[in-house]
Amino acid sequence: MGQAAGKRGLWGFVRGGMGQITEALSSSARRFGAEIRTGVEVAQVLLRDGRACGVVLADGQEIRARVVASNADPKRTFLKMVPANVLPSDFLREVDGIRMDGVAMKINLATDGLPQFRAAPGTGRTDGIGPEHRATIHIGPSIEYIDQAWQDARAGRPSEQPFAELTIPTVYDPSLAPPGKHIISVFVQYTPYRLTDGSWDERRESYADRVLDTIAQYAPNIRSVVTHRQVLTPVDLEREFSLTGGDIFHGEMTPDRLFFLRPVPGWARYRTPVAGLYLCGAGAHPGGGVMGAPGHNAAREILRDWKRV
Q: Which of 13, 126, 256, 257 is deepest in the core (most CB within 10 A)?
C-alpha cells in the first residue's frame, strides 16, 4: 500500500531511528551558518510597526530576526504568541475554529522478544522474524469495529475496543535495541483529548492495559515479552510537544481544512496577516506526515519575499 522513496510500501524506516532525520537537517543547517538552540521556549513573536522582527523567549531574552517562521501549530502561533490586536478579527475567528482535538495515543514498547500472532504461527525461523513482523500491523477486524471505536470517542470515551496500528522498526534496524530485544510502536485510536468521565492522568495506564489486552487477542505472548512501556495520551502529547489538543497534524486533515483552506481560507501560502511571520509546520499545506513539504514550501515563499525587499 503506497510508496516510499521509490519503493513499494507505505512506510520508510530511518536507519538509526527517527532522530536521524532531525540530526541530518540540523547538520546541514549548521554548515550554512545556522545556530540551533534547544530546550528554550518562545513566549511571543516580537513586533515592530506591525511587522515580525524576532521572538521573545520565556526567560525574557529577545532574538532579533528579519523573518520569523513558526513550526508551532496555528492556534499556538496566533492565539498565544501574537498579540490579538494586530490580527484581523475574522482571521482570529477562523483560527479559533480549527478543529484541533487529538484522538490518537502513542504507546512505545520495549520487549525481549517478538509478538507471536495466532494468524501466523512460527515456522522454525532461527531469528524469529517473519514477514508478519516486517509489515504494518492493523487491529481493526471490521468496518463495524472501527465505526464503534469512533462512536465511543465521539461520546468522549476511549474506544472500548481500540483500533491499533503496530510497527516493529528493530526488525529492519537491529541497532535500535540490544541483541535479541525489540521496539514496538503502537499507534492507538480512538482516544479523545476531552474525556466525559475522569482525566487522562487517571486513566492513562489502565487504558494502556486495555490496548495490550486487545493485542493479546491476536498475539497471546505480548504481555510476557514487554519489559517497559511509554504511554503518551493526547494530553501528554500537548504537554510534551506543545501540540494543541494533542493533535499530531496541527489541525484536522479534512476537506474543509486542506489545500487552499489550510490553515484557514485566504492564508494558504505560508504567509500570515503579520508581515515577516510565516507558518511552516503541519498546520500549513499539505499538512502532517514526515515529509517536510510545509517547511520546504514555506522556505521557497520566504526566499521569494526576501528578494523583493
A: 257
> Do residues 173 and 183 touch, judged by C-beta distance below 8 A?
no
In order of 74, 89, 241, 263, the CA distances from 96 in angstroms are 9, 10, 20, 11
Residues facing 106 on adjacent strands: 187, 232
pLDDT tens digits for range 100-155: 999 999 999 999 999 999 998 865 465 688 888 988 899 999 999 999 999 999 99
Note the pTM of the prediction, 2 decimals: 0.90
- Give 221: exposed, middle or buried? Use CB within 10 Å, 0-12, 13-18, 19+: middle
pLDDT in tens, 226-251: 999 999 999 999 999 999 999 999 99
Q: What is the pLDDT of residue 25?
A: 93
CA distance 26 to 135: 30
Rounded to 10 deg, the angle between the 200-216 and 234-241 helix axes is 120
Say if residues 164 and 206 touch (Cβ distance below 8 Å). no
Contact 14, 176 (CB under 8 A): no
> Nearest 5 degrees, angle CA 2-CA 190-CA 162?
90
Structural domain boundaries in the chain: 37-99+248-308, 104-241
pLDDT number for residue 125: 60
Q: Where are the alpha helices (DSSP H) in the chain?
A: 19-31, 74-75, 89-96, 143-154, 200-216, 222-225, 234-241, 293-308
CATH superfamily, with its number, for domain 37-99+248-308: FAD/NAD(P)-binding domain (3.50.50.60)
CB neighbour list of residue 306: distance below 8 Å, 6 or more residues apart:
66, 67
